[in-house]
Amino acid sequence: MDFRSLQLFKHLATSLHFGDTAEAMYVSPSTLSRVIQRLEDELGCTLFKRDNRKVALTHSGHKLLSFSTQALKDWQQLKADLKEDTEALQGEISLFCSVTASQSHLPAILRQFRQQHPGVDIRLITGDPALSIEKIKQKQCDLAIAIHTPDLPTDLYFSPLDNVPLVLIAPREWRLTQLAQINWTQHQVIMPEHGPTRRIAYHWFAEHGVRPNVYASVGGNEAIVSMVALECGIGFVPKVVLDHSSMASLVTQIAVEDIEPYALGLCCLQDKQQEPLIDAFLKLDFIPRG
């Protein structure tokens, strides 16, 4: 028994006419008769009642019709699935992001990507977000969750994901709740060593005529939260970092309405933008957190 024999049988079981089935299935009537005889010999039963006037299915024929219908349907589905597997994206793509972004934004991105492209392996690299642009430039990763800056190199492509506000935090024990309570000559400030938070914070200080009394410069926004929680000073951090910090309960947020947020997005080299794996990532319908 083979699928071609089942196709011929199924058509005949529907048409109940040897001539019509032979014409429709592009076989001779004698070939069709031999196929049906071979099926009957193999199964050890009669599939059709035949006389000079009509053809009818036997009880055994009805059972084989049910079987052949499902078998042929499964066969077609299998072929479609195998074709889809062959055409599906395959390979590996490397992605760089901060530990915070791997918790806040990456899960939703990867969930969509894995659903659409299960054959692609993802290599995740985490580190200081200030290094994301350099990682892309040095081709140490294919994509990065990065922060847009005014001096973003022209050979990079940036696809926005979300706007991330900055918040000013102070040690909870200091009981500072309003901006007016801060004495900028006395309250020391924890600053990042580099990156967009440093740029935005210094821009805000300049606009308000403030010369910050810097206690320390640290690597990474997470370190700022830790230093503030340990009562070393106050500092600006991205709200998403504070939301995912285990030390958030030890600091107080102070409202600062006029400090600019920064744009978070997927970044890659311009000349790699159309590569299939990178293009698939950039086409994800990601919904910003809010």
Please explain how this structure is put together.
This protein has about 290 residues and is α/β, with parallel strands linked by helices. It folds into 3 domains: about 5-85, Winged helix-like DNA-binding domain superfamily/Winged helix DNA-binding domain (Arc Repressor Mutant, subunit A, Orthogonal Bundle); about 90-165 and about 265-280, 3-Layer(aba) Sandwich (D-Maltodextrin-Binding Protein, domain 2); about 165-260, D-Maltodextrin-Binding Protein, domain 2 (3-Layer(aba) Sandwich). It has helices spanning about 5-15, 20-25, 30-45, 60-85, 100-105, 105-115, 130-135, 195-205, 220-230, 240-245, 275-280, and strands spanning about 50, 55, 90-95, 120-125, 145, 155-165, 165-170, 190, 215-220, 235-240, 250-255, 260-270. The radius of gyration is 34 Å and the shape is rod-shaped. The chain starts with a helix and ends in an 8-residue tail after the last helix.
Largest sheet: 5 strands, mixed
List the total number of helices: 11
Unreliable runs: none
Backbone CA Rg = 34 Å
Looking at the structure, what is the overall shape? Answer: rod-shaped
Q: Specify the CATH homologous superfamily of the largest domain.
A: Periplasmic binding protein-like II
| Strand numbers in spatial order across the main sheet | 4-3-5-12-6
Number of separate strands: 12
Average pLDDT, all residues = 90
Tally of discrete structural domains: 3
Would you kindly provide a brief summary of this structure?
The chain is an alpha/beta fold and 290 residues long.
